[in-house]
């Protein structure tokens, strides 16, 4: 999730040194602060010494700017998988992407064990059409090893002129040999919301949360409701499967579209005074019609905010498999002409006060897809808990991090087991105690 601007929406213990004192000598706050500052300056001097030694003694003349950029990126990526440095070009590309149009292959990626891991292919993009799956590990780009590259460097190599080909070598769990997949680069225009009528049910698919998402959702609900007819429509299916997330304000707006009141999400940073709460305003776009939310192992971040809010308020039934488990907020901090940093600054919490970090949203109704033979044992993602250096789960279930979740959605709706179950429930052709949701909505978090 990226917090736009200073609120623009993908830890390990951060080097805390334990100090043991064996005497009763008073230790003033000013002494501690001065000692910490002195130690920090010593470490910065160490960095300066190493930097100068590399510049003077390395076998070839290094690029000073590249050295500094690599050092900064190394510092940030050591914190967690979602903090990183963005060069001026990467920062511009990110701004374009959140507006809904960018150049590339059409995959959301992160780093895992030095390789590029596919969080989710984006619908109707070159990577999606070429058969790239969530959970795939990219080991080579046009024959060049990914190991040793930063995430930004790898992404930069995957970009290029439109209509040019790129070969990505993929390691897929369960596949005996690496797969070489040829993808033709194209302009990726993200239509983040698509909709259609499934008989007497409105179906709305949200692929990511960019600046156009809420407007698309509103249009999709209105059009499907009008086409089906107010008296005939049974309800809505909101499909968030393999949606990697996006802008926090759009996740809040989408949640608000179905709620009349109450908290949607809260974000909490390191200091208690940094807590922010976001509440719903009156007005339900569906006018109280039943809603089923589809999620799976590729549903992350902003998707989980929506699912968590509607689940806690008993406004929707969550159906599918456990979500990805990315419960952290990234703030984009511009650095003038030097690009920007993406820094994890807070965790987010569902209305009931639960953090889903490294645990995900558990569906009210679990439903697995029927996998084709060639994908059996290979269509699962380990989620946030599978990323090296991830922020740890917290709370009473802190030890219960997710172990994996199915992230496969068949291209043919006729073969989509989860969608079929959702439609049957809305039409009353199947019955489940979790639908419609009952009981009190989320209580105020502590």
From TrEMBL:
<feature type="domain" description="PDZ">
    <location>
        <begin position="91"/>
        <end position="173"/>
    </location>
</feature>
<keyword id="KW-0732">Signal</keyword>
<keyword id="KW-0378">Hydrolase</keyword>
<dbReference type="Pfam" id="PF22694">
    <property type="entry name" value="CtpB_N-like"/>
</dbReference>
<feature type="region of interest" description="Disordered">
    <location>
        <begin position="382"/>
        <end position="414"/>
    </location>
</feature>
<dbReference type="InterPro" id="IPR036034">
    <property type="entry name" value="PDZ_sf"/>
</dbReference>
<dbReference type="Pfam" id="PF03572">
    <property type="entry name" value="Peptidase_S41"/>
</dbReference>
<dbReference type="InterPro" id="IPR029045">
    <property type="entry name" value="ClpP/crotonase-like_dom_sf"/>
</dbReference>
<keyword id="KW-0720">Serine protease</keyword>
<keyword id="KW-0645">Protease</keyword>
<dbReference type="InterPro" id="IPR055210">
    <property type="entry name" value="CtpA/B_N"/>
</dbReference>
<feature type="signal peptide">
    <location>
        <begin position="1"/>
        <end position="20"/>
    </location>
</feature>
<dbReference type="InterPro" id="IPR005151">
    <property type="entry name" value="Tail-specific_protease"/>
</dbReference>
<protein>
    <submittedName>
        <fullName>S41 family peptidase</fullName>
    </submittedName>
</protein>
<comment type="similarity">
    <text>Belongs to the peptidase S41A family.</text>
</comment>
<dbReference type="Pfam" id="PF17820">
    <property type="entry name" value="PDZ_6"/>
</dbReference>
<feature type="compositionally biased region" description="Basic and acidic residues">
    <location>
        <begin position="382"/>
        <end position="393"/>
    </location>
</feature>
<dbReference type="InterPro" id="IPR001478">
    <property type="entry name" value="PDZ"/>
</dbReference>
<dbReference type="InterPro" id="IPR004447">
    <property type="entry name" value="Peptidase_S41A"/>
</dbReference>
<dbReference type="InterPro" id="IPR041489">
    <property type="entry name" value="PDZ_6"/>
</dbReference>
